[in-house]
Amino acid sequence: MKSWISRLAFGLAAACTALGTQAQQTEIVVDYAIPDLFKEVHEAIAKEFMARNPQYKVTFRAPAPGYEEATQNALRQAVTNQLPDVSYQGLNRQRIFVDRNLAVELTPFVQKEKNWPSMGYDPALMSLGQVKGRQYGMGFSLSTPIIYYNADLVRRAGGDPASFPSTWEGIFALARKISALEGKPSGMHYDWDITGNWMWQALVFSNGGTMLTADEKKVSFDGAAGQKAIETLAAMVRDGTMRDVSQATALQDFISGTLGIWAHSTSRLGGVTKQVGSRFDLRTAPFPVGGNGARLPAGGNVAMMFAKDPRKQAAAWDYMKFATGPTGATMMVKATGYFPANLLPSQDAKLLGEFYKASPNHVTAIRQLPMLTAWYAFPGDNGLKITDVIKDHLQSVVSKSTPPGDALKTMARDVQVLLPR
Question: How many Cβ atoms sit within 10 Å of the Cβ of residue 27?
Answer without folding.
Answer: 12
